[in-house]
Design a protein that fits this description.
The complex is a heterodimer.
Chain A: E1 4-7, E2 10-14, E3 19-25, E4 30-38, E5 45-51, E6 56-59, E7 62-67, E8 72-77, E9 86-94, E10 101-104, E11 108-113
Parallel strand pairs in A: 2-11
Antiparallel strand pairs in A: 1-3, 3-8, 4-5, 4-9, 6-7, 7-8, 9-10, 9-11
Chain B: E1 4-7, E2 10-13, E3 19-25, E4 31-37, E5 44-51, E6 54-57, E7 64-66, E8 76-78, E9 87-94, E10 105-106, E11 110-114
Parallel strand pairs in B: 2-11
Antiparallel strand pairs in B: 1-3, 3-8, 4-5, 4-9, 5-6, 7-8, 9-10, 9-11
Classes of the chains: A mainly beta, B mainly beta.
Amino acid sequence: KNQVEQSPQSLIILEGKNCTLQCNYTVSPFSNLRWYKQDTGRGPVSLTIMTFSENTKSNGRYTATLDADTKQSSLHITASQLSDSASYICVVIGYGGSQGNLIFGKGTKLSVKP
Amino acid sequence: NAGVTQTPKFQVLKTGQSMTLQCAQDMNHEYMSWYRQDPGMGLRLIHYSVGAGITDQGEVPNGYNVSRSTTEDFPLRLLSAAPSQTSVYFCASSFGQAAVRAAQYFGPGTRLLVL
């Protein structure tokens, strides 16, 4: 069964600290993996999109890594800011159907405290 | 560009009532989708469309209808609301298929409460 598991479920860090969020998946065949940021009461916003041939993708202070062999991805946030408080969702896209097979993780809720 | 817009932002319905959630995009995207987001669960696909006049079912289509008469609009209809349909609904659009790396753009969501 295609699944996406994210850990931890929630995380509290102090402003200025770094953190890493994890995403493990079993989706096959695999097309690409995305990380989204979802602020409370808003829709998800794309941070990165990676195919199996890309190991690292950065977007400002956000860096995503992908190991297609172990089917693991991580999102590293550097020098966290209060505005980073949000849910981070990992989405794995498989081939199939007329728009692809999108499997969403449940998300990691990050709280950045001053 | 307004991007993806959704109306209303919040709605309260009584069991058995019907309503339409509106979604519009001004990016000339072919692909549009409706998702629901429930606490403790990932987003789940309700219906999607790959172009005007073409729609298909997603993971949780029961109780919902869609149509796509124009590229811009993709309304979601609840035929007879049930408490199990209490959720946050997101509309998304993309230029191409997600399997070929097309970025998805999400609307701000509609919070629906069914009493």
